Amino acid sequence: MIYRIEILSTIRDTRAVAKKNKLQSDGFNISEVILVDVYSINRKLHVGEMEKIASMLTNPVTQVCSIDASIFPEKFGYAIEIGYLPGVTDNIAATAKESIEDLLKLKFLNGENVYTSQIIFLSGDLVSEEINKITESLYNPLIQRMTIKNIKQFNNDQGMGKIIPLVKLHQSQKVEEVNLQVDDESLAEIGKKGIKNADGTRRGPLALSLAYMKAIQSYFKKQQRNPTDIELESIAQTWSEHCKHTIFADPMDNVKEGLFKTYIKASTEKIMKIKPGFCYSVFKDNSGAIEFDKEYLVTDKVETHNSPSALDPFGGAITGIVGVNRDSIGFGLGAKPVINRYGFCFADPEDTKPLYKGNNLTQKMLQPKRIMSGVIDGVNSGGNCSGIPTSQGFMYFDKRYKGKPLVFVGTIGLIPKRIKIARRAIDLWSKKALPGDYIVVVGGRVGQDGIHGATFSSEAMDSGSPATAVQIGDPITQKKLSDAVVKEARDLGLYNSITDNGAGGLSCSAAEMAKESGGCLVYLEKVPLKYPGLSPWQIWISESQERMTLAVPKRKWKKFNKLMKSRGVEATVIGVFTKKKNCLVKFHGKTIMDIDMAFLHDGLPVRPMETTYTPVKYPQPKFSQPKNLTNSLLAMLHRKNIAGFDFLSSQYDHEVQGGSVIKPLQGRGRVNGEVSVTRPLLTSDRGVLLSQGLYPNYSEINTYHMAAAAIDTAIRNAVAGGADLDKLALLDNFCWCSPHEPFRLGQLKRAAEACFDYSLAYGTPFISGKDSMFNDFKGYDDKGKPIKISVPPTLLISSIAVIEDCRKTVSIDVKFPNDLVYIIGETTEELGGSEYFSMHDQVGNSIPKVNALKNKNLYKNFLKCIKAGIISSSISINIGGLATALAKSAIAGMLGMEVDLKKVPGKFKRDDYGLYSESQGRIIVTISPHHKEELEKIMKNNPIRRIGKVSDNGKFTIKGKSGKTIIDTDINKLLKAYKSTFRNY
Asked: Is residue 952 part of a domain?
C-alpha cells in the first residue's frame, strides 16, 4: 500500500518567497511560487492511522493537508515535483518514519519506508524551454528525481501521481576473483578504472598506480592465489592518497623521510620538548589536542570535502561537517563537539559559463552559484541540526576554484583528561582495542552511498568520477549517537576504543583499530544494511554516514547494547578483535578476505619523487595611482574577498550551547571578524579562540612566502584578539593540484619548509592536519574544447588558542570617540599577489615577507597591553591592507575616523601602495588617550605610531603623505559598500 500526504501552507511561506526571489534574480519571469510538502508512505495502514499521521505532520494553525488527494493552488503554469533518487539519504523522511513509529507504536519492516518530496507550483510568463532551465537550478540529477507537468497534464492526471523510490538491486552477491596475472598495461587499467564487471563495465576508480598494482600482484603471487574483489578494493581504500598521504610520506629530492616527518611533525616534536604538557596525542588520532586546563583538553581537526561538494554541494558539505564532528567523537575515548569552523574557496558565483565532465557537452557540472549555495546550506544543516555552534569561518573567491571548490570544515571538542571508573583512573585521551573485544558498529546503516569516496578524492575529477561517491549526512541520527556515546557510554567505561567510519568505511575503521590489538575477524553478513542486495565489497568499503566503530569488551556488551537501544541508537556486533596479525573477513561462513596486517597497512611501495622549482616572474604593474582613492576604497570593500558575508554568518547558529563571547559578526555594524572566542565550559572564564590565515593569490609567486604569510596571519589574528603565543597551536590543510608535476611538487616542498621554519620560530606546534592533493578538473568548456582547471596551491593554516580569561579578549570595533588610533608594525611596498593588484588585473612579484623574530617580540609585548586592559579595539591587517582594516574597524563601531598616512612607519612611495600593501606583522589598535604613555612604554622596542583618532561625526578621512586628504567619505557609504556585494544572496 502506498499513501500520500500533501501539506500546503495557508500563510506566507518564506521558503517559497526565497525560491521566487532566487528565480527572479536568475532572470526568470516568475510571478508566484507555491510549495507543497509531500510524504509518501509505503506500508499498510488503516484510515484512522493515516489521519493521526497527517495530523502529526501538519500545523493546523498555518497549514492544510490532504490524504491521497492532490492539494494545489487555483492558478499555476507548471508543477515540478522533486524528491530523492532511490537509496539517497532522506533525513526528513527518516525523522518522520521514527515519529510515526513512536506515534502508532509500530515498526516499519524491510521494504516499508517513508519518502519525502516537494511540489513547486510556478506562475508567470513561462515557456517549456525556460522550465527546463529552471529545473536545472532546482535539482541535482545525481541525487534527485524530478517530474514536470503543466497545468493541463496535472489536471488530466489528477495530480503528480504516486512514486516510491525503492532501491532494487539485482547484482550478484558472489565474491569475484580478480586475475592479476596480466601484463602491465592491463594491470594499470585495473588500477585506474577499477575491477571489470561481467558486462564489461568497470566498478569505479581504485586510484592505484602501476607500482602499487605490481606490489599487490607480487604479494598475491607469494600467496599462490589471486585476490578477491573485496581484498583488492580494501587495499585500494587503505593505500589511497586520501588515507595514506603518500605524497607527504614518500621521499622527495633530498628529503628522505618525506615532507610530513621532516617538516610538519619534526617542528612539533621540537616545540613539544620546549613546551612539555601542552600537546596531547598529536598526529596519531582522529584529532589533535592541547591542554585547556588542569582537568580538560580541547581537540581540533579541520577536514576538506572538495570532490564530493563539486558533485553535490549540499551532500558534500553536510557530510564534511558531520564527518569532522565524528573526528572529535573519535578522539581518545570520545570528545564532545563544542565548536564548528568552516572555510570556503569558490569561483565567482556570477560566472555562468558551463563546464562539462564528458565530451560532446555531456555531464554538465553545477555552476559556481549553485555550488556556493549548496555548500553553505550543507554546513548550515549539519551544524545547526547537531546543536554545535558554528562560530568561525571565511569565504575566498578565485576563478580557479571553478573546477573544484575547496570546502574546509572543522570541529573543536572538549574531553576530560581522565576519569575514575571502579576506582581506576583512565586517561580518556588514550585508547586501545584489546584481543577479544567485540567489533561493534553504532549509528546509521550501510548503503551504496559513499562507495569509492576515498579513491575518488585521490584523483582529478573527470568523466569517470562516480555518482556513488556522493553521500548525505544525517545530523539527527549522529546527534543521538554522539550523546549516547560521549555523555554516557564513555564515562561508564563500556568500550576500549572508538573511531570514525569515514573514508573507506569499515575497510579502514575496523582494520585501523585492529592494529591496536593485532588483527580482526569480521562477519560481514552481520553488518546492518539500508536495503538488501549489496555486494560484500560494497558493504566493506561503503562510506555511509553516522557510523562509528567501537571495541567493546564481551562482558560489557549487554550493558552497552541496552544503553544504545534506550537512546534510539542501533548497535551491532560484526566481529571480534584478535591477536592474529591478519585482517580476516567472512561472509556467510566463507572466507572472502585474508590479508596480513603488515602488508595491508605498510606494504605500499615507496615512490621517490623529484621536484623542479623556478619562480614565475610576472610583469611589474605599471598602472598609475587612481585620482580618486575614495572610490578605490569603496571598490575594495565591495570585492568578494573583503565584503561582509553576514547573509552566511547569520544562518549559522553560534549561540547554541551558550558559550559565545566574540561572535562572528562584531560591533554595531556587524562586520565579519577574523577571530571568534567561545567558552566551552560555562563554569569557567577560560575560552577557545579560533582564527586562520590563507593566501592562495601568493602561491604562483612564491609558496614559501605564501605559507609564511598564512602562518603569521593565523597567529597575528589570534594575538589581536587576546591570544598568548604559549597557549596557541596550528593546523595545516594543504589543498594542491597536479601533484605528479615536478613544478607543483617543488611548490609543495617549499610551503612545507616554511611550515617548519615559522612554526618553530613562533613556538606554535602543528597538532593536526590534512592534505588534499588532486584538486584538478579535466573536462570540456562550453565550446566542447578540452580544458584543465587547477586550483591555486592553497594552504589553510588554522589557529586555536586557549584564553585564560575571556573577559580580556578584544573585538575589532572601535568603541569610543576621541580614542587614539595606533598602528603596530611596518608597512612597505609588498603588494605582489595582493587584493589591490588583483582589482587592477595585475599580479606583481613583491610578495610580503615575514620577519618572525621581529613579529614574535611584537606579539608578546602586545599581549601585555591586552592583559593591562588598555586596548579598546584591535584588528589584524590582512587581505586588502591598512585602508581595509581601518574601514572595517570603523564600520564595526559605526564611528568616524581620522588617519594620517605619513605617520605610518615603513617605506612606500605611493599613497595607494601604503593603503593597500599586505605587509605582514601589523595590527591596528585604538586606546583611550589616558593609556597613551602606557601603550608606548610597553611597545617601545617595536615599530608603533599614532596615526589618528576616532570621531563621533561619522566621517572617515585619510590624509596622504603630502598632507592632502586622499580619502573623504562617511561610515554609511563604507557600510553600504561593505554590505552590498552579497545583499541578494
From this structure: yes
Helix (H, G, I), strand (E, B) or coil at 322: helix
Q: SS3 helix, strand, coil % of the chain, rounded to 5?
A: 35, 25, 40
Rounded CA separation 549/323 (Å): 14
Length of the chain (residues): 985
Where does residue 541 fall: left (phi above 0), alpha (psi -120 to 50 degrees), or beta otherwise?
alpha
Q: Are 892 and 974 in contact (CB under 8 A)?
A: no
- Residue 852 half-sphere exposure, CB side, CA atoms within 13 Å? 21
Measure the CA–CA gap between 806 and 798, rounded to whole angstroms.
20
Please choose, from the candidates 946, 714, 667, the residue with its C-alpha nearest in 3D space to the C-alpha of residue 811. 667
Whether residue 245 is contained in a domain is answered as no
Three-state secondary-structure class, residue 603 = coil
For residue 611, is pLDDT > 90? yes
Look at the block and give the residue holding cell 596525542. 281
Strand 582-587 and strand 519-523: pairing?
A: parallel
Query: Can you give the CATH number for the domain in which 848 is found?
Result: 3.90.650.10
Domain of 126: which CATH number? 3.30.1280.10
Last residue of a domain, one of 157, 175, 205: 157
The tens digit of pLDDT for each residue in 368-382 reads 998 999 999 999 988
Give CA–CA dist 352/367, Å, rounded: 6
What is the crossing angle of helices 229-239 and 210-222, to 10°?
130
Total structural domains in the chain? 2
Q: What span, in angstroms and rounded, lies between the C-alpha atoms of 867 and 240?
A: 48
* 137 φ/ψ angles, rounded to the nearest 5 degrees: -85, -10
Whether 374 and 318 have beta carbons less than 8 Å apart is answered as no
Q: What distance separates the 2 farthest-apart alpha carbons in the chain?
A: 87
Domain hosting 976: range is: 810-985
Q: How far is Cα 236 from Cα 229, in angstroms, rounded to an integer?
A: 11
Is 404 contained in some domain?
no
The CA–CA distances, whole Å, from 280 to 297, 413, 498, 724, 864 equal: 8, 13, 17, 19, 28
Residue 970's alpha-carbon distances to 15, 633, 669, 815, 967, in angstroms, are 36, 12, 13, 17, 10
| Residue where a domain stops, chosen among 129, 157, 185 | 157
**Residue 879 included in any domain:** yes
- Spatial strand order in the sheet of 896-900: 873-876, 923-927, 820-824, 944-951, 896-900, 955-959, 965-970
Which residue, chain included where needed, has cell 572538549?
414
With beta carbons less than 8 A apart as the criterion, state whether 454 and 543 touch: yes
pLDDT in tens, 534-593: 889 988 888 887 889 999 999 999 999 999 999 989 999 999 999 999 999 999 999 999
**What span, in angstroms and rounded, lies between the C-alpha atoms of 858 and 865?**
11
User: pTM of the full predicted structure?
Assistant: 0.90
Q: Which residues contact 471 (CB under 8 A, 6 or more apart)?
A: 89, 308, 315, 316, 319, 449, 450, 453, 543, 544, 545
Comparing CA positions, the residue from 561, 447, 440, 541 lying closest to residue 499 is 440
Residues 6+ apart with CB under 8 A from 749: 252, 253, 255, 259, 611, 613
